[in-house]
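Please produce the structure of this protein holding manganese (II) ion.
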Amino acid sequence: MTQTHPMIGRNLRIDSDRLWQSLMDMAKIGPGVAGGNNRQALTDDDSTARHLFQSWCEAEGLSLNTDKMGNMFARREGSDASLPPVMVGSHLDTQPTGGKYDGPLGVLAALEIIRSLNEAGLTTRHPIEVVNWTNEEGCRFAPPMMASGVFAGVHDLDWAYDRTDAAGARFGDELERIGWVGDAAVGGRPVAAFFELHIEQGPILEDSKTDIGVVTHGQGLNWIRVTLTGKEAHTGSTPMPSRVNAGLGMAQITVLAHQIALAHAPHAVGAVGHCEIFPNSTNIIPGKAIFTIDFRSPDLAVIAAMHDELRTGASAIAKTLGLGIDFELAGAFDPVAFDPACIDRVRAAADRLGYSHMDLVSGAGHDAFWMSRVAPTAMIMCPCVDGLSHNEAEEISQDWAAASANVLFHAVVETAGLVSDD
Ligand code: HGY
Ligand code: MN
Ligand code: MN
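Below is the modeled complex.
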């Protein structure tokens, strides 16, 4: 007779060296120029990483299911197939100058849980699915967390397929080109719970010498893409008063965005990370500028206020400079509160394993944000060196990876339930 055994699992640990080796092997795919990674969504390197992940999953006896957004679900059956899966994962795509751990830590720690369960010969009641979400970063194809957003019913599949990158390539065409369009419908199926392990990407855990971040909430975001239209003209012979300079407008609105974020201190943040200027020639006054403001806050009202202030201030700047201006909401998600029961399991696991821990609000967005709409969801964070991320110098310690993966292990197994043959 099988039953959920309350005590087995207390001494479960992952294999730290095996997890670290997988991280290092994955980091070899899509190398950056300074020790990190450039493995952007739907590139050939993304596909190579997917094939490596698939081979590791199949070596563990997992069955791989890929959906129409390329999301990969590697499934380990439980004792009761009628139960919905406990999902655990993150993303393998990176920023153009990304680190080795932003995303892969969450996917490969989840795979390490499977490897450890297989090694221990343990069975869970619920199936477990290890997930690689397509295009979490959103740097090539905006918005971020695009494919988990389709899974959670936030975005429509066809809308997602029509997103284009800076070169005009369509998401759907690129997914087809790399051969990762799956047959499975995107979402619309029951999920018992979702857990995501991620590096903090900020300094709080390291500065406080805390092992584990118990993520209770995540801040919200608005990406406002601004297009300024001026007039190309000779930088030498055109009198200053008659210039219609889109580059000048971009510079002034960039400063405005920074000032708006500061005005909503201490929690709001804002920056312009993406900007394109045309024709981008030294001796031509820019006739066009396209740039994106990234505003974030834990408070939705503050995000809305910053958005409105930006539109008002930027329109005034454009008017003064004689520029045309167009605004597009290129990405948005509300602040999120994670599931209290899942959070408690994370906290209890950290206590049981003897790790120091603190509650955190995630500054960065994650697939867990959208998953919290369709399943009880929680996140675990580990420190990163100098709080640095979205930088090729991103670094964590092997001990931080192991500790956070052990907490993930216990939270997932407790949720999935372990059975023992009596
Ligand atoms: O932008 C974010 O917060 C995430 O890194 N995609
Ligand atoms: Mn990430
Ligand atoms: Mn990221």
